[in-house]
Amino acid sequence: EIFSELQDRVKYKKQIKEEKCPLLKNDIFTFSDDDFSFLNYVRLSDTAMDILLGGYQDTVKKEFKPKMGTVIVPEKIESENLFYNEAEKEQITTLSNALEDSNYDNLIARMKENKMKAGFTVLLYGFPGTGKTSSVKQIAKATGRTIYMVEIDRIQSKWVGESEKNLAKVFEEYKYCKKYFNIDPILMFNEADAILGKRFNVNSAVDKTFNALQNILLQELEDFEGIFMATTNLADQLDKAFDRRLLYKVDFQKPEKSISKKILGHAFSYLTEETIEKINDCYTL
User: SS3 letters for the chain?
Assistant: First the structure.
């Protein structure tokens, strides 16, 4: 109805699919939530609905169903006993206190006063199995925050340019997630080794994609507002460019003997203390 010539219709539709259309750029409409639409259907954006219907979105809250990650609400997180070395325990306690609602609001206000971006960015790194992911979940439960968890393999695609779009989409979805929940949720990149590592000299299409993903992530973190947490086992391979964009880092070391004894005692409560002691002395946890 708008274009009489077929070629003009095709050209305009291509513009929409490539997200170059002004109506998309200005958040007037967005792609349909229908998983089977393959970008053939669009709808009015929530912003446009709000303007046109005068606050309608405030009364009818649409369920948040992200495509790039998983939403974990604090009520669904099971309580878990975690045992830390003293240094990690101190840092996790500080982190948990900082994310208490009133403390967090105060912290963000101070960051803004000091001309900093209001992004609370955290890296949890160290040995596998030392409780990095579990720590994020327990902090979220304790502070009543929802987690929007992203597994890196969901971002990566075999199609050229698709991985970059997926990563950008993650941050779009997080912004919507922030509007949806009453307090800032946690954007969590779980096992982010594949995206936080040192950049390569470009020798292949894979290297090019990896570097492009890193550049997008660095830019997003530069402008980020909210709570970002990433876990990785390979901190020694962390790209230096991420250093100044990550405010708080927690180094998870292997458990000390006294801590590994507590972990063993908790996991195998039916064993005698003598047996636990013997296992702890003979084997590294």
Answer: CCCCCHHHHHHHHHHHHCCCCHHHHCCCEEECCCCCCCCCCEEECHHHHHHHHCCHHHHCCCCCCCCCCEEECHHHCCCCCCCCCHHHHHHHHHHHHHCCHHHHHHHHHHHHHCCCCCEEEEEEEECCCCCHHHHHHHHHHHHCCCEEEEEHHHHCCCCCCHHHHHHHHHHHHHHHHHHHCCCCCEEEEECCHHHHECCCCCCCHHHHHHHHHHHHHHHHHHCCCEEEEEEECCHHHECHHHHHHCCEEEEECCCCHHHHHHHHHHHCCCCCHHHHHHHHHHCCC
